[in-house]
Amino acid sequence: MSDVFDVIVIGAGPAGENVADRAARGGLSVAVVEKELAGGECSYWACIPSKTLLRPVELAAEVSRVPGLEVAPIDTAAVLGRRDAMVSRYDDGGQVEWLDSVPVTFIRGRGRLAGVRQVRVDGARDADGPLLARHAVVLATGSVPVIPPIEGLAEAEPWTNREATGVKDVPERLVVIGGGVVACEMAQALHRLGAADTTMIVRGDGLLGRVEPFAGELVHRSLTEQGVRILLGRNAVKVERPVAGGEVTVHLDDGSRVVADEILVATGRRAAVDGLGLDTVGLSRPGPVDDSMRVTGVEGGWLYAVGDVNGRNLLTHMGKYQARVCGDVIAARARGDADTLPNMRARADDVGAPQVVFTEPQVCAVGRTEARAREEGFPVRAVEYDLGGVAGASLVAEGYRGRAKAVVDTDRRVLLGVTFAGQGVAEMLHAATIAVTAEVTLDDLWHAVPAFPTISEVWLRLLEAYGM
């Protein structure tokens, strides 16, 4: 094996794979170093398995709202079996085979920076000396869960997203610390799959605090109706688990306590930089990066960072977006070609990043919330519409519950943000993403006619609510 490549990528998750693919398409030799499974967090422990667990919950809810259809009990064993198939039974052979076909050289081991354009791989290759990159090293190591400094929590061996999505035996009693996306999704999935006694401990005054408040309220109502207990405005102050694998007790700041079989911590993530060797190139963290994903402040401009590790956006699809930019721009710079084409600068991270929360009801949003738009000084008017009042919604389900909101820049008459909450709304998000990212004016949106009878007719209702 050669020790010299044009590009070396540390991390073979979705972002790292996409950088490698684009750089290789540009004619460069590429090595990818990965210590775990090729395909990364999303493929095995996050997006894919979590949505596989949530889909039966969603379908059961949909069927229950259509007269004439019988709701069958969820077969937990079958759901977990499908989860295993969707994650390839935690075997990355297919991913490695794809990397080989690109072609990319895949190296199994822990990669770390060892100086300018140098990467050392711990393990079998360690004695062979570092790899050398002619043009670029790309950090794509993702992120890891944050375990808050609560007395006894770490010692209690809490679940994170990995244990929750990889569950083999669903506990009867589950306590969840957190109120964000992972907390809501996994509380709902595990509750419906057998965790009959599920309690969420939420520090804030509502769920899904980064989206419009009505969305979190709808999810809160749904979870509560399903039997999940939600404790808002509470903090865990101490966790006890005297016997490994035994029951866990969570003490709250109001003097109460929750007893469960397992505890899931879903309180955020941080960049995975431990042992990455950043100090060897004068860095303490892999950022900031410019819009070509190049790390600023590194002499020679050879170091790049994509995905969660750079801190710009912790969403898989945005990491892949950054990676496409990065791979293309590295190839152009290596060839001496122009590196300023429109596809070679990332501009969607800040306000064009779409997100879907796959709870039941679904929540999806793109752009700014009303509160953020006002904080940033935009002239704002927001309009909302009850999705249940759209003709297509009554065909989807009896008693359809949902809501849509558009945040408008009144001076330029363009959308600053759009949020939907309701059954099956995720499929409407890309239209909103195009409208927000491309800054389509309201005057033009009047002529984008929604089909009847579909829920997307809410676009017309929002425009009517706003007026000409």
Automatic annotation (TrEMBL):
Disulfide bonds join 42-47. FAD binds at residues 51, 111, 141-143, 308. Gene3D superfamilies: 3.30.390.30, FAD/NAD(P)-binding domain. GO terms for molecular function: dihydrolipoyl dehydrogenase (NADH) activity; flavin adenine dinucleotide binding. Residues 354-459 form the Pyridine nucleotide-disulphide oxidoreductase dimerisation domain. Its cofactor is FAD. Binds 1 FAD per subunit. One of its GO terms (biological process) is 2-oxoglutarate metabolic process. Pfam families: Pyr_redox_2 (PF07992), Pyr_redox_dim (PF02852). Keywords: FAD, Flavoprotein, NAD, Nucleotide-binding. NAD(+) binds at residues 178-185, 268. Residues 5-315 form the FAD/NAD(P)-binding domain. The keyword Transferase does not apply. It comes from the Bacteria. Belongs to the class-I pyridine nucleotide-disulfide oxidoreductase family. This is Dihydrolipoamide dehydrogenase.
